[in-house]
């Protein structure tokens, strides 16, 4: 039974890739081409039944990929019209509501097909890296001073935004997200991280106790995320199963990147680890990857706060100085053994 389902999923993945290339070819043609296809994808009873069957198949799991409506897709496009820096942004095609209502139903079909089949088209998984100097005063001839920012296709960022909305809602509803992470959250910033850590330190020192503060700055943290470990986090820590988990497996697998510098472009090479910087899902996937850290720190009564990949850990020194630092060393050993972050 499982092999039969895998075969069907593989067919869906291949078909979704074909749909993407088909729609991409239509984008370069006259808008009138979309009119008959809009009617087919918008009103076809057969496609509605396919979506219903796929949704029922995924509904038995704790997290399922729900299909989106045309209005929801329109709202996402409106957001990206103002903020997107995506690769090959089709401004001329989606400039104005009239154009969107012609091509929107076709794109809606592609997005829902990807979500309900648990697959991501290969064309969505190619990133163009554009090196950006981390700070203006750094040596521009030293390659280590550059940050690789990924530029992804416009439609792939729309798909990621749809997934993010469901994933974030699930994390919030089940109180899974790390509460001491101030990055990638509304109403949180470096200020909230600073105020919380400073307040805790002042409370301890005002009580006459000494505190040790350790700052961890993880180098290339986004680029060294192990895909297998991340999938285990999604399955066992977050609780994602079935079609939704297959979607994330497909999202992380077979990714490619090339480098674009000025008028020059490199050949494409595979990405074997890391989450794309510049992607929509990258920040939340990185936060999920770090989730076990909170449990480890709390086990040893060590306070902490994170802002993206910058981690502040601090603990009070008791009368038994040796025992205080013994707990700290044991905590660092467990963090290292968990393979969440690399410690030297």
TrEMBL record:
Q: InterPro entries recorded for this chain?
A: DNA/RNA_pol_sf, RT_dom
Q: Which PROSITE patterns match?
A: RT_POL
**Which residue spans traverse the membrane?**
64-80, 100-124
Q: Keyword annotations for this protein?
A: Membrane, Transmembrane, Transmembrane helix
Positions of the Reverse transcriptase domain: 113-344
Q: List the PANTHER family.
A: REVERSE TRANSCRIPTASE DOMAIN-CONTAINING PROTEIN
Q: What is this protein called?
A: Reverse transcriptase domain-containing protein
Q: Per the UniProt entry, what species is this protein from, by scientific name?
A: Oreochromis niloticus (Nile tilapia)
